[in-house]
Design a protein that fits this description.
- With about 240 residues, the protein is an alpha+beta fold.
- It folds into two domains: about 160 residues, CofE-like (60s Ribosomal Protein L30, Chain: A, 2-Layer Sandwich); about 70 residues, CofE-like domain (CofE-like fold, Alpha-Beta Complex), CATH 3.90.1660.10.
- The protein is built from seven helices and twelve strands.
- The strands form four sheets. It has a five-stranded mixed beta sheet. The chain has a three-stranded antiparallel beta sheet with strand order 4-5-6.
- The longest helix has 13 residues.
- The structure holds guanosine-5'-diphosphate and manganese (II) ion (MN) (2 copies).
Length: about 240
């Protein structure tokens, strides 16, 4: 397996054609997995917002005091969220497309001015569109850097994907000693996203696109890395 960091991408603006840009810098082959930082996908989709455009409700103002943030920023998080899981000491929210993240993934770094940057509205839809524009049988994973419960430090996760199964199903496989596997689902898009995020860097590296070649992965099947609400035993306890 090889990993390639695509160098030479510009600062992305609304309307930029990311598929054309990466194709002009890298020769894609069938089977490649293209990982893109959600930041540049969001920029190309014009997900910038002015803080001034938000008019915080009383609830946003109250949460803003708990988390030490601008009430207008908190209102932006609430607007992007289906549910708030924690509103102290930081804001942990479920986005409308199912991802759970601090501040609903809204970024203020690598944006370039006073504006904020929302996540893409539906990252898997974005991934599918980008995949179709690549013109090869590739997979596309849209990543974001996230904190993890129970673990220190941030890591990359997949927030959207296309042309690859989110989960690899090991059911029916046997271990070294012939015992049937019990842990059956492996979150392969997250594993790939974590490696991509490591290669992208977090600061001014300017490398939001990474390609893996020679990975074996299931092209379809598996549903989602976003855990179904009715299967999640942690979420109801956070609500209490
Ligand atoms: P996130 O993990 O999706 O929130 O994105 P980050 O802000 O951590 O950025 C990931 C990588 O993309 C870093 O190497 C950034 O320097 C780079 N990056 C962010 N925005 C741009 C951009 O508009 N153009 C380029 N070339 N790189 C960018
Ligand atoms: Mn981010
Ligand atoms: Mn990052």
């Amino acid at each position: 397996m090889q990993g390639y960091v695509i160098r030479g991408l510009p600062i992305i603006k609304e309307g930029d054609d990311i598929a054309s840009l990466v194709k002009s810098l890298f020769n894609f082959q069938d089977g490649d997995v293209l990982c893109l930082a959600s930041t540049i996908v969001a920029k190309s989709e014009g997900r910038f917002r002015e803080l001034e455009s938000y008019h915080p409700t009383d609830r946003a103002a109250l949460i803003a005091r708990n988390v030490g943030k601008d009430p207008r920023f908190v209102q932006a998080v609430l607007d992007e969220s289906e549910e708030v899981l924690l509103d102290k000491p930081f804001l942990l929210a479920v986005t409308r497309f199912g991802h759970v993240g601090i501040n609903a993934g809204i970024d203020q770094s690598n944006v370039g001015d006073a504006r904020i940057l929302l996540l893409p509205e539906n990252p898997s839809t974005s991934a599918e569109r980008l995949r179709a524009s690549l013109g090869k049988e590739c997979a596309v994973i849209i990543t974001d850097t996230c904190g993890r419960p129970f673990r220190s430090g941030v890591a990359g996760v997949a927030i959207g994907w296309a042309g690859i199964a989110a989960l690899r199903d090991w059911r029916g496989e046997r271990d070294l000693h012939g015992k049937a596997l019990e842990i059956t689902l492996e979150a392969i898009v997250d594993e790939i996203a974590a490696m991509a995020n490591l290669l992208m860097g977090e600061a001014g590296d300017g490398t939001p696109a990474v390609v893996f070649r020679g990975l074996k992965y299931p092209r379809s099947g598996g549903d989602s890395v976003f855990m179904a609400k009715d299967k999640d035993v942690i979420r109801p306890r956070l609500r209490r």
